[in-house]
Amino acid sequence: MSQIHRIGGGLIDRATEITFTFNGKAMRGHPGDTLASALLANGQRLVGRSFKYHRPRGIFTAGSEEPNALVELRKGAAQEPNTRATVAELFDGLEARSQNHRGSLEFDLMAVTDLLSPFLSAGFYYKTFMWPRAFWEKLYEPAIRASAGLGRLTMEEDPDTYDKGYLHCDLLVIGAGPSGLMAARTAARAGARVIVADEDFVMGGRLNAETLEVNGRPGADWAAGVVAELAAMENVRLMPRSTVYGAYDHGTYGVLERCTDHLATSGGKPRQVLWRVYSRHAVLAAGATERPIAFGNNDRPGVMLAGAVRAYANRWGVAPGRRVAVFTNNDDGWRTAADLAAKGIEVPAVIDTRDAPAVCDVPGARHVRGASVMDTRGRKGLRQITLTDGQMIDVDCLAVSGGWNPNVHLTCHQRGRPAWRDDLAAFVPGRDLPPGMVVAGAANGAMTLALALREGFAAAEALGYADKSDLPRAEDEPRECAPVWHVPQSRARAWLDLQNDVTVKDVKQAHQEGFRAVEHLKRYTTLGMATDQGKTANIPALAIMADCTGRTIPETGTTIFRPPYTPVPIGALAGRARGRDFRPYRLTPSHRWAEAHGASFVEVGNWLRAQWFAREGEQGWRDSVDREVLMTRGSVGICDVTTLGKIDIQGRDAGEFLNRVYCNGFATLAVGKVRYGLMLREDGIAYDDGTTARLGENHYVMTTTTANAVTVFRRLEFARQCLWPDLDVHLISTTDGWAQFAVAGPNARKLLRKVVDTEHDLSNEAFPFMACAEVTVCGGMPARLFRISFSGELAYEVAVPARYGNAMMGVLMEAGAEFDAVPYGTEALGVMRIEKGHAAGNELNGQTTAHNLGMGRMVSQKKDCIGNVLSQRPEMLHEDAVKLVGFRPVDRATGLIAGSHFIRQGDAATMENDQGWMSSVAYSPSLGHSIGLGFLKRGDARMGEILRAVSPVHGREMEVEVVSAHFINPDGERLRG
Amino acid sequence: MIINHPLLGPRDAAEFVYLGDAALIDRPDWQAEDAAEAFHAYGYLRDNPAGVHRELWYHEQGDRSWLVVTRDTVSHEITAVELARDVARARGRGR
Amino acid sequence: MAEYTLQAEPPLAGTEMEIAGVRLWAPNDLALVSLALPLGGEAAAEQAVRAAYGVALSGIGRSVVAGDGTRLIRLAPDLAFALFPHATPDAERVVAERLKGAVYTTDQTDVWVALALSGGNTRRALERICPIDLHPDVFGMDHAARTVMEHLGVLILRTGDDDYLLLSASSSANSFLHAIEVSLRNIA
Fold it and tell me: Is the omega angle on the peptide bond into residue A823 within 30 degrees of 0, that is, cis?
């Protein structure tokens, strides 16, 4: 097919011809075309089917406000639905398809729904599909989804990548039309750091679509000149193809830059970048959007907005029709008629709703005064219009202008409300603008070119960016408008929202049914929803609503504009955060060693920790874990415990500080000793636990749980800065700095003796349980040694600078070879702590107190510490309070279930009879049966009692016996030996 | 949001962690007669103003300072940012 | 002679590449020690630093390079970092001895991992992950800032016209390198 509608002129590269396909049909266009302009050039008027009634639809606008021409672009996984053809930049090889029809676009089988339209009016879904309820999921919803709706998803993973970024500027200029360019040039010449963002791929805004002149030259040339000047300035960043989609707090703006959408492939580069722009000031120069007039069958392909029709002729060298009538209620519509006539396109009539003289001379056109279009004909494209005076005129395109709406959207993103201006019959920005924002040009209701240029200049000046250059000369073109929203003589359906198939009748019906608030109207009729958010439909619909209620439009009010201004793909919002890159990951120092020795890893927060080390012949994880436990308890095991938080605490008052943040006393901790500490929240609930070692007079090292490392540090800083600002205490994290290994088991001392340098005495007398020291290992390597035990065995933790950690793991294993040392992972660690009855995350779950944990006596009442006052509330110390105890199954072969609740034998399993819950369970290879820890009312006084452990989730229950939580070595002679 | 750190200049709120009412600085005296009531009020009772609010923010991805930010909860306008340590001292907190 | 010896394996050792005209590498043997200024002893601490290094501690968010190549970075009123070339694991002791107890020192060498970037496109690449303004007029020579990039805490230093040193937690070194490498590839 040739470009039968291509005419002269325009900002396209005629020397280069590119090919693309629409529904598989090959077509041609030029660089500089949009898909819409190229389709029109090729005579393709029908481009899609409507959302609800499957009505034939064409291209309605020439910009991002397009409600109709939604297409699928590209193929395979890269296919994207619901793309507006009016903003899709044409490239060689582009594949586009129409959407929302069954069968071909020309003969959509679903078009039958249009015949059912009397039954499908506003609120149809709500009324019809109410019952029977079960039918909704199984029948109605699938049927509706299949028939209505927009494009299809491929269900394949998006092959493109996306990125984000941060930009800073003095002035963000939103929109590169005449006022935006003036503001940018003025501020840039004054030395400001300026960013100019425009959604179009050619800057200049309406200047590119008009025949207006600036300084006696074509406006588009003037714009190109300013853009070239700005591009050469170091303090200016031009961002074409970039939509400012949201105005956020404190001068922050969201900008979506489309980097490769205009290229055949992204070439491995991010397809789009979501920028966060930090600005001191912003000039909103977003222009205005034309609105239609509603009349019978005003949705046929060929009915277009008048400004769009002349944009296609002027900017793209395309005639949207061969015989184009103009229907207008304002002066601007006449400009379309004049421009088309000047291009040699036949304009049979200008129909003006106003009974007033012609605005300008349009050769060959009849001026029909005080009349309207009330109906149209042409099944798949406009053929004829009928006027209110009965005249019928054959046309293939009708250019409609109902006036222009300033694009106030971004002024409302912080709940600003627009103000009505009667002279424009439109909303303009209100007084409550986002701080730092100034509005200029058509967005501000300055509807002529001369005004727009002046406002752009003045906006920059008002923000303190002075430039002495002269204002460019331009005309104040006629802009009178007499609002007409709807042609009441129309008998056929008159469409308001083309995207959602909402008619004038639907709005009236919604009003009759009581949906009178605009937000209700929107939700009941779906007016203003979906990709275009009613950019062309909202104001006419409001006007009709106002008419129904007898109120004015400003009294009726608008719906609230929220970001985004135009759609933002989910991929762009996700940015890089996909798959493995969703969040950072942390590796322990011995990760490489563990990988090489069969470790399976588990995610613990961001950490990857060795969970167990499988050996050949082991059938499953339990085999490995049981072996690791038995070999550790039998001889010696080694575990990387680097992930525990480590906080270096120094200062003259460090000891006093610790005494206040732990509930138990730290004032008496001697140098060279370690103490277990329990931290409470201020409400008395147990928060975190760990050990703190005193390495020197004013030097301590605290450990926290892995999970709370960050939040404990935060709380300590709060205590240091906000509660006791005059204590001399200094905190710094050293978690990543030291590779720390637990060496546990009866042979732990013998193993370490081979690694720790000989001048350090490791005997039980010299280095007893809960001792610590700075030592050297492997011939002078600085190290820290702590005699602490989580497993209940004779155990140490030894730390070396992290970069030596991988080697240290190897050395410990090598030195341990003669003892059959094993590496163990987090599972064996967990089994051994349950066997020993140590609380962990399952027990410190944000609901339990020191009293519940059996550590009530640790809470010192002789000192001030966080949580001690509220921990003494009577309800928390109630004699019926739950206590941490151990459990074993009466039938030893049964596996306990974590989360079970305890019920007395004979009682019903109800909430009233609840006695507590099982918090942790494990199979104890040491004992040969399942064991558990749990919280039981007065548990410490109920040793030997038999209870039922009920798990309604699993539908199971079993008998359990209450025992001490210390299953292994309750007297602790092993860890002290 | 942007928080204008008194020592570091404007920083994105994403670098900060929010805690809440700056009244949390005024931790009661544990030995007072009414300590239990005072701690109850301290721990649980908060004003929730639509308007100016003094609140604690922590510069976790920064210099680790706690700040007292005076912010309008309706408009998000921030009118003052102080180091919490200075505020605490001014309110009589010390050792 | 001990039976066993330990070899250092810094997380990003050997990293060296050029993307988009920017050289990216992991500097070897950089030691880092934190200096906490005692409450009430700030003047004595600053005097000790001057005596030891021949330069005064800079203002917050700035750094200063001493005659021996040590970069002293002031991060907060009571906190500075000393960054200097040093291979052996005794950096803290070396600094502590020079400062004679006037500051609290903590070894931070292995807490962090460093990546250096050099080249005209560095700022353009860092725009993708760095929320703070790196414009040369705003983030000048020897400026320092802690911020967040791709969820990672990062200390960024400007060491030359187009030269930056970035430090982040050593345990997440792979994610850190990945974040910077992707930023460079995305602008290449």
Answer: no
Question: C132 in contact with B at a CB cutoff of 8 Å?
Answer: yes
DSSP per residue, B4-28: EETTTEEEEGGG-EEEEEGGGG-PP
pLDDT tens-digit series, residues A793-839: 999 999 999 999 999 999 999 999 999 999 999 999 999 999 999 99
CB within 8 Å: C106 and A732? yes
**For residues A662, A665, A671 and A677, what is the CA-based torsion angle, rounded to 10 degrees?**
-40
Mutation site for A-interface testing, chosen from B89, B91, B93 by largest number of A Cβ within 10 Å: B93
**Nearest-angstrom CA–CA distance, A479 and A453:** 16
Chain C residues lying within 8 Å of A163, measured CB to CB = 128, 182, 186
What pLDDT does residue C1 have? 46
Decide if pLDDT at A118 tops 90. no
- pTM (2 decimals)? 0.95
How far out from the chain centre does Cα A168 lie? Answer: 21
At residue A544, what are phi and psi to the nearest 5 degrees? Answer: -70, -40
**A685 near A870, Cβ under 8 Å?**
no
Percent composition of chain C: helix, strand, coil (DSSP 3-state, to 5): 25, 35, 40
CA distance A675 to C123: 48
Q: How far apart, in whole angstroms, are the C-alpha atoms of residue A581 and residue A575?
A: 10
Q: Could you tell me if A779 lies within 8 Å of chain C, comparing CB atoms?
A: yes
Length of chain C (residues): 188
**Which tokens is B85 given?**
């340590």
Determine the Cα–Cα distance for residues A809 and A702; give it in Å rounded to an integer.
23
Distance CA A101, CA A117 (A): 17
- For residue A771, the 8-state DSSP code is B
- In chain C the beta strands, taken as DSSP E runs, fall at 16-19, 22-25, 30-36, 62-65, 71-76, 79-85, 104-107, 112-118, 144-149, 152-160, 163-169
Amino acid at A229: E
pLDDT score of A130: 57
Asked if A919 and A934 count as a contact pair (C-beta separation under 8 A), the reply is yes
Helix, coil or strand: residue A390 = coil
Quick one: which of A21, A161, A155, A162 has its CA closest to A77?
Answer: A155
Q: How far, in Å, CA of A475 to CA of A102, rounded?
A: 50
d(Cα A290, Cα A307) in Å, to the nearest integer?
Answer: 7
3-state SS string for A785-835: EECCCCCCCCEEEEEEEHHHHHHHHHHHHHHCHHHCCEECCHHHHHHHHHH
**Contacting residues of C for A601, CB less than 8 Å apart:** none
Candidates C19, C28, C93, C104, partner chain A, best to mutate (most A CBs within 10 A): C104
Sheet with A822-823, edge to edge strand ranges: A772-777, A781-786, A795-801, A738-744, A637-640, A822-823
Contact (CB, 8 A) for A329 and A352: yes
Tell me whether strands A404-406 and A288-290 are parallel, antiparallel or unpaired.
antiparallel
**Helix (H/G/I), strand (E/B), else coil: A838:** coil
Please state the separation of Cα A272 from the chain's center in Å: 15
> What is the value of ipTM here, to two decimals?
0.99
